[in-house]
Design brief:
The complex is a heterodimer of chains A (192) and B (325). Chain A contains eight helices and no strands. Chain A has 192 residues and is mainly α. Chain A is elongated and about 65 Å long. The chains are: A mainly alpha (192), B alpha/beta (325). Chains A and B meet through helix 5 and helix 6 of A and helix 2 and helix 3 of B.
Chain lengths: 192, 325
């Protein structure tokens, strides 16, 4: 919800330098292993004396982590729309808003959806790690299992998490198919 | 109909794309903006639908300063076709064509009818092509649809920026011919760097160089009377060929024969028109194998042209060019 509009805004921004800095930053943050990110947030929270345990910091970490793939993909997706298509659309008298919704978004949909799917799957993964900071849920079970080396707990935690990830990914792939306009799906016979 | 008044375009980095351009285009005429890359021809055209704004000067369409109009409204009444076509890949052919009519809030009925009309006009069977996607079309088909899309809302003015440029030469020639045969009665501004395309497509040609207008003339006049050295060099070694393309039979048939007689009878299949070019006449002579062909002006017979006369005229032109290579 947050990343998509932000991504759109960035893709239109004229301040190319600023944008590339932000994108670079986003890229770096994304490479930080999620565990480290969580730890990082815990530390920051401790400094600004917010609760370091429980769902709040977990949510922050999750939101941040989920944001980035969607942001990057939205940005990239919109930038890669063929220039001449945009030129013609403007020349024909479409308003910028109309161009965004009827042309740019449909054409960047595959890329954006990929971003969303990646984000979703990773978020589920990161969520389990949040068990470390006492956020509860499946993560908790995994951690307990690891600590006490009891397979039952481990399995009870990991299997649902994995299944959850797989199901969500599958649902999103269906959504993607449903949203993708026929002309782009490659399912129609294309002439080169 | 369209008037450029002292138009200038200078970019922030100092580049002068268009300098002091003034010209007028009459309604229903096709003006070709001809020039090499960087001559300012595309820039000039884009100022008409305000994709580029002039640095100074004004442009009038039907005596209204276009700066006083809302650019979006303006663009919806001007057809726009570009070299890379830019068909929307996620829309069907019908949806592509319907874009501007929908923006103008036409009724669905009207839009449907118009789509069928246009597809027939460009030679694509409506039922077959309406629901296809651009990816399923050949280059020539896409280009035709680009043109149809520009004409969709029946705009009085149409801008075409090297619309056939992305095609192979054979398809390009085919489309040029089809476009001329469509006899579109609109005010058209056509940009090209190809002098042969220019003389084919234009009622008048504006030759530009480095943003300045070098000559504004009919194709025949441009070829016969180049105004300055630049024009001369631009025509270069093609002048002879261009002469053949632009000179009409009217210049060959002796004055005395040009009295239209009320000759009865139907116009024979193999005939020439007074405004046929020399090349067209040569083609007809070759095709028919005759030594003399009747010439008509509108439906009136004005005389016979002997093949020998035609050849003599051509030799005459060659003689005129004797000085240049």
């Amino acid at each position: 919800m947050i990343a998509l509009p932000l991504g759109v805004y960035l893709s239109k921004s004229r301040h190319l330098k600023l944008v590339s800095i932000i994108m670079g930053l986003a890229g770096i943050i994304q490479t930080v292993p999620s565990l480290a990110l969580i730890a990082f947030i815990v530390v920051i929270f401790a400094i600004i004396s917010l609760p370091t345990i429980g769902t709040v910091p977990a949510m922050v970490a999750l939101v941040l982590y989920a944001l980035l793939p969607i942001l990057r993909n939205t940005y990239t997706g919109i930038r890669q729309v063929d220039e001449s298509v945009i030129e013609v659309a403007t020349g024909m008298g479409m308003k910028p808003v109309q161009i965004l919704f009827s042309i740019e978004l449909p054409l960047s949909l595959p890329v954006i959806m990929t971003g969303i799917r990646i984000s979703t799957v990773w978020t589920i993964g990161v969520a389990t790690l949040c068990g470390l900071i006492g956020a509860g849920g499946l993560g908790d079970l995994i951690i307990k299992g690891l600590r006490s080396i009891q397979i039952d707990y481990l399995l009870a935690g990991t299997i649902p998490a994995a299944i959850l990830a797989i199901i969500f990914d599958w649902i999103l792939s269906l959504v993607e198919k449903w949203l993708t306009p026929e002309g782009l799906s490659g399912g129609v016979e294309s002439r080169v | 109909m369209i008037r450029f008044d002292q138009i200038n375009k200078t970019y922030p980095n100092g580049l002068k794309a268009v300098c002091d351009l003034s010209l007028e285009i009459e309604e229903g005429q096709t003006l070709v903006l001809l020039g090499t890359s960087g001559s300012g021809k595309t820039t000039t055209m884009k100022m008409v639908n305000r994709l580029i704004e002039p640095t100074s000067g004004r442009i009038f369409i039907e005596d209204i300063d276009i700066m006083k109009k809302d650019p979006i409204e303006l663009r919806r009444k001007i057809g726009y076709a570009i070299q890379h076509i830019g068909l929307f890949p996620h829309m069907t052919v019908a949806e592509n064509i319907a874009v501007v009519p929908k923006l103008l809030k036409w009724s669905e009925d009207k839009i449907d009818k118009r789509i069928d009309e246009l597809l027939s006009l460009i030679g694509l069977e409506p039922e077959q092509f309406k629901h296809r996607y651009p990816a399923q079309l050949s280059g020539g088909q896409r280009q035709r649809i680009g043109v149809a899309r520009a004409l969709a809302a029946d705009p009085p003015v149409v801008l075409m920026d090297e619309p056939f440029g992305a095609l192979d030469p054979i398809t390009r020639e085919q489309l040029q011919k089809e476009f001329i045969e469509m006899e579109i009665k609109k005010t058209i501004i056509f940009v090209t760097h190809d002098v042969f395309e220019a003389v084919k497509m234009g009622d008048r040609i504006a030759l530009l160089d480095s943003g300045r207008l070098q000559q504004l003339a009919t194709p025949a006049e441009l070829v016969e009377n180049p105004k300055n050295e630049f024009v001369d060099q631009f025509l270069g070694q093609h002048r002879f060929q261009l002469s053949l393309l632009t000179r009409t039979l009217k210049t060959i048939i002796p004055e005395t024969e040009q009295t239209a007689s009320t000759c009865e009878g139907p116009v024979p299949l193999q005939h020439l028109r007074a405004k046929s070019s020399i090349i067209e006449a040569l083609d007809m002579f070759k095709k028919s194998g005759k030594t003399a062909l009747p010439v008509y002006q509108k439906r009136l017979f004005i005389g016979n042209l002997q093949k020998a006369e035609l050849l003599k005229a051509i030799t005459g032109i060659l003689g005129e060019r004797g000085g240049t290579t």
